[in-house]
Amino acid sequence: MIPRQLAATLGNTIKPGRVWMLFGARRVGKTQLIQNYLTTVQEEAWYQGHGEDRDLAELLESRSASRYRQMFSAYDGFFLDEAQSVQNAGAALKLLVDLFPKLKVIVTGSSAFRLDQMLGQPLTGRRAVHYLHPVTVSEIAAWKDPLAPKAQLPDLLNYGSYPEVLQIGDPRERQAYLRQLVEDYLFQDILVFEQLRNAQKLRDLATMVAHQIGSELSLNELANSLQLNRSTIERYLDLLEKSFVIFRVGGFSRNLRKEVSKTQRYYFVDNGIRNAVINQFQPINQRADRGALWENFFINERRRFNAYHNTGTQSYFWRTYDQQEIDLIEVSPDGQLAAFECKWQNKKHKVPGAWPKAYPETPVQFAHPENFTQFLL
């Protein structure tokens, strides 16, 4: 079993009278994480249900105090998996914790655009939100040994780190799993819940983003290529982000005249998902896009590292109008900066001249396949 970093905090953060929320893409291990936790509290009685169970969803949507008492009064805890399928789930959960202040409540969800209703006014001050990512370098090291991430790097760049993918040996089976995951889960959540008419356009947009990792996206160019208006492109990108397919990184600036700050770069939450979208799984040493895959991998891993260590760090890229750039700028809550350049080859690299002039107190660290674990473990 792959150890997950969030498991160590579950017992201390799940409290009566509050809703413990776990979000993340489908198949990243949310259900397994909670079920593993429940085996450690077998002295407690837990009701376990799924949001796609229409009988349970109808009960919750009724917001009937008498029905809630009849169903849940005998339990110490309530676990609702894939809560986005329940309409007005936030109001239902608020009533539940109001009626049963000693009840522990855990919910999971994989569609943030449906979970907005849970994060709003109904549960203000009554929730704790956590995110589960695909398996991290640190988790792989704990699962196997500290040298394993470096040894597995070609596979991580090509097939990503979804839990089931890591446990499949045959490359063809990995590819088939990832393609099915993309079609059956990641896109379907958006298509079903949002009732989009242009399903192919959504797939085409994801493909275009996949080919532009590490580059600022021109929404006007995307709109022209896909024959959609700019506002639709913005909406689709937002849906892909809220369904945990991609994430955005904005431009960093402290208002210096030459710094670009109003554009966005997009990355995939998992390299395997990115490669499944474009259906390319050639060996890394044969790929022209290995630099982009490496950048996606490292920036993603730093994002996961900061999330699990609760650093409060924000991620940006840095570029000037004369095309000097740094791949990753991290800003801590106290304003401290860290700068990283993602390089495929381990050799001496030059720092863009404008960076040390503007930020002399922040050296640029070069992350490459020979040293990356020092930044992630």
Description:
The protein is α/β, with parallel strands linked by helices and 377 residues long. The chain has 2 domains: 7-131, Rossmann fold (3-Layer(aba) Sandwich), CATH 3.40.50; 137-375, Winged helix-like DNA-binding domain superfamily/Winged helix DNA-binding domain (Arc Repressor Mutant, subunit A, Orthogonal Bundle). Helix content is 43%, strand content 16%. The chain has helices at 7-13, 30-38, 54-62, 65-72, 89-99, 112-119, 137-143, 148-151, 153-159, 163-166, 171-194, 199-210, 219-226, 230-242, 271-278, 290-308, 354-358; strands spanning 19-23, 46-50, 77-81, 104-109, 127-131, 246-251, 264-268, 314-319, 325-331, 337-342, 364-367. The strands form 2 sheets. The chain has a 6-stranded mixed sheet with strand order 7-6-8-9-10-11, with helices on both faces. A 5-stranded parallel sheet has the order 2-3-4-1-5, sandwiched between helices. Helix 17 links the parallel strand 10 (337-342) and strand 11 (364-367). Helix 5 packs across helix 6, helix 9 packs across helix 15 and helix 11 (171-194) crosses helix 15 (271-278). It is globular. It starts with 6 loop residues before the first helix and ends in a 10-residue tail after the last strand. The relative contact order is 0.11. Keywords: ATP-binding, Nucleotide-binding. Residues 188-344 form the DUF4143 domain. This is ATP-binding protein. GO terms for molecular function: ATP binding. Residues 18-140 form the AAA domain.
